[in-house]
Amino acid sequence: MYHPVRRAIEDAVWNVLHTVAHAVLLSLLALAGLAAVVVALLVGPTLLGLSVGAVGTLVLLVAVRELAHSFDLRGVLVGPRRRQ
User: Transmembrane residues, as ranges (predicted)?
Assistant: First the structure.
């Protein structure tokens, strides 16, 4: 009886850690994309600035989309009046 319970607890802990790591990685990717967009705005309309801005925008959009699909954020993003 002890072994299956221990195994279930270990699996649950690893699942939670995996979810947290996934969320942190996607958040870091979103921040990196946002930083690239800011750098592109500071560099100006050069080829380097436009390239960095395009890549940063793409990374930011993909990371936010993946975060939204992986974690149901509808309840978090909706105001208290709409939750009823």
Answer: 12-41, 47-64
Taking phi first (over 0 means left), then psi (-120 to 50 degrees means alpha), and beta for anything else, what does residue 44 get?
Answer: left
> 3-state DSSP: the chain helix, strand, coil percent, rounded to 5?
85, 0, 15
Q: Would you give the DSSP letter of residue 43? A: H
Total-model pTM: 0.69
Provide the token pair at 43: 């560099």
Tell me how far CA of residue 59 lies from CA of 52, 56, 63, 69, in angstroms.
10, 5, 6, 15
Distance CA 76, CA 59 (A): 23
pLDDT at 65 over 90: no
pLDDT tens digits, one per residue of 11-40: 999 999 998 999 899 999 999 999 999 998
